[in-house]
From TrEMBL, chains A, B:
Pfam families: DUF4743. This is 10457_t:CDS:1. It comes from the Eukaryota. The lineage of its organism: Eukaryota, Fungi, Fungi incertae sedis, Mucoromycota, Glomeromycotina. PANTHER family: THIAMIN PYROPHOSPHOKINASE, THIAMIN PYROPHOSPHOKINASE 1. GO terms for molecular function: 8-oxo-dGDP phosphatase activity. Coiled coil: none annotated. InterPro entries: DUF4743, NUDIX_hydrolase-like_dom_sf, NUDIX_hydrolase_dom. Residues 144-286 form the Nudix hydrolase domain.
């Protein structure tokens, strides 16, 4: 059993959501200009967003690189050079760039190297519309949309909810020691969404496949976070899993320190205390009528910010 | 029992959502410029959006009006004149304007006069942050955010859903004869959200209060529709109501022609045939795992467009 921190701060729920959706909206023109971003473009489609520090490092790399250089850097956009024109070539060009930046310690974001490849979409001739794949830790440098899964495991007794809350391991590169959804993880380029949730439930919470497979999809949350690592537009597919009281999630890999089974009121107290990773639980609490529109003044604003529209393309597949 | 139309078209679900969220987004600069709208401003806050035809009619009204005229019309904004500075005075100024337009048949939108007052928010010194109230039929002329409630009544047997679908009366001023949520209606300025859903359930579906009060809130959908009546940014609070099989909604007022209890597959067929009012049912189908992300290619795009962020202010109240 791990120790519980006593909550102290008291944020509004909208404040919490704003911590995860903190990149300005297109209509916030003054705020957005301060970021001075440059879009990463592929065939007229915006697939990422680069901060000035990344543009500068990309320029240096291009200059040192033997000709022809792999990237085209213009005043108002960055794109791949004409010879870097396939999924494989783009993936290779990005890999070489990142190896160089990693060796030269150009960006602290790359210290959290994961050895996990994430898809970046936008090329209809690539597999499932993928333009390239990229090391997970590097995604904030390119401001590309990343995809993940969230699972809320809960116990319902006589209409009364308790939620299985994970405490993130203190060694995690992002949000160490924070409270989290029961299971959360990225979607690697080679797994379906449902397979991703089952795999993560097994790895993070030691839930067997025959239990995890009963997870039901219930929507997605989308938001755009700015952190010290860079720009992180994210989409998290949301799953619910009602668990029998005798099924107890247990840490399995090193991602989670421990699990708590908490009443809703305790979950909300800890959310308001700022102890949860800020992208957690609110969508569940709204869908399950725990946060209600007659009681929560920021109901609509919370929903907007949990469903931010990203312009970036996603996967294509046959329905 | 009323007759069923046989479905013929076959739209994708995203096409349907785009019919209800068809006003361009801020980043779609070319499309948005074509509308050439002017914001209605109150104390630096945008509370509405006016088309050129409305600006022109407002200019004529101002010129004919005895001095001092109630509206200030500038190149880049419209606002109330300094002497029209309270909730009551704005409400009166709008009422007089609409009476004039109605008499002169300036806008066909006003033919559907409802005698229902809708709130427009944005004045912290007004009741619940209201700037004024306005006749419902006139809201599209001012592009003000309107609020409504949606209720999906359903029967669940062994994990299998059936939905109570309303067929709108052929005499309704908007979407006559279309299929609809079980219960839907606007939120008048003097009712809470929960009271609105109970009232509408009683009036439209003859559901008694002791049943309707078990409706549970599960979120909201928000979108921005352009119609021949004007500009309609909307927010609909979403409620679910599981009904026993022996509770049968029945038309009570003249809003609904009849109700059907349909299997999900039949509901989806009729949605794809374009027979539903396009703001219906998709949110329910996503939350209840009927539309799933591994099967629906436009899953995220559908969610974005059902949760469009409106800049316009909403009500204020103590939580």
């Amino acid at each position: 059993m791990c120790s519980e921190k006593k909550e102290s701060s008291n944020f509004g729920l909208l404040d919490i959501v704003k911590q995860c959706d903190n990149f300005p909206y297109p209509e916030e023109t003054v705020e957005i200009q301060k970021f001075n971003t440059t879009p990463l473009i592929l065939n007229d489609t915006k697939i990422g967003l680069l901060l000035p520090s990344v543009i500068q490092a990309l320029r240096s790399y291009n200059e040192k690189h033997e000709s022809p250089s792999p990237f085209v850097i213009k005043e108002d956009l960055v794109t791949f050079s004409p010879h870097v024109n396939t999924f494989e070539k783009r993936t290779k060009a990005i890999e070489q760039l990142l190896n160089s930046w990693r060796t030269e310690k150009t960006f602290s974001a790359l210290k959290g190297w994961r050895d996990e490849l994430y898809p970046v979409y936008g090329d209809p001739s690539g597999p499932s519309n993928m333009a390239f794949v990229i090391e997970r830790a590097a995604t904030p440098l390119f401001g590309v949309l990343t995809f993940g899964v969230h699972l809320t495991g809960f116990v319902k007794t006589k209409g009364h909810y308790r939620i299985w809350v994970a405490k993130r391991s203190k060694t995690k590169p992002t949000w160490p020691g924070y409270l989290d959804n029961t299971v959360a993880g990225g979607i690697p380029y080679n797994l379906s969404i449902t397979e991703s949730i089952i795999k993560e439930a097994m790895e993070e919470a030691n839930l067997p496949r025959e239990i995890a497979k009963d997870s039901v999809p219930a929507g997605a949350i989308t938001y755009f976070t700015v952190t010290e690592r860079g720009l992180q537009p994210e989409a998290q597919y949301i799953y619910d899993l009602e668990l029998p009281i005798d099924v107890v999630p247990k840490p399995f890999d090193d991602e989670v320190e421990c699990f708590y089974l908490w009443d809703i009121s305790k979950v909300i107290d800890h959310i308001k205390a700022g102890e949860f990773k800020p992208n957690c639980a609110l969508d569940f609490l709204i869908r399950h009528s725990i946060i209600t529109p007659d009681k929560e003044p920021a109901y609509l604003d919370i929903l907007y910010r949990l469903h931010r529209r990203h312009e970036f393309p996603g996967p294509s597949f046959q329905s």
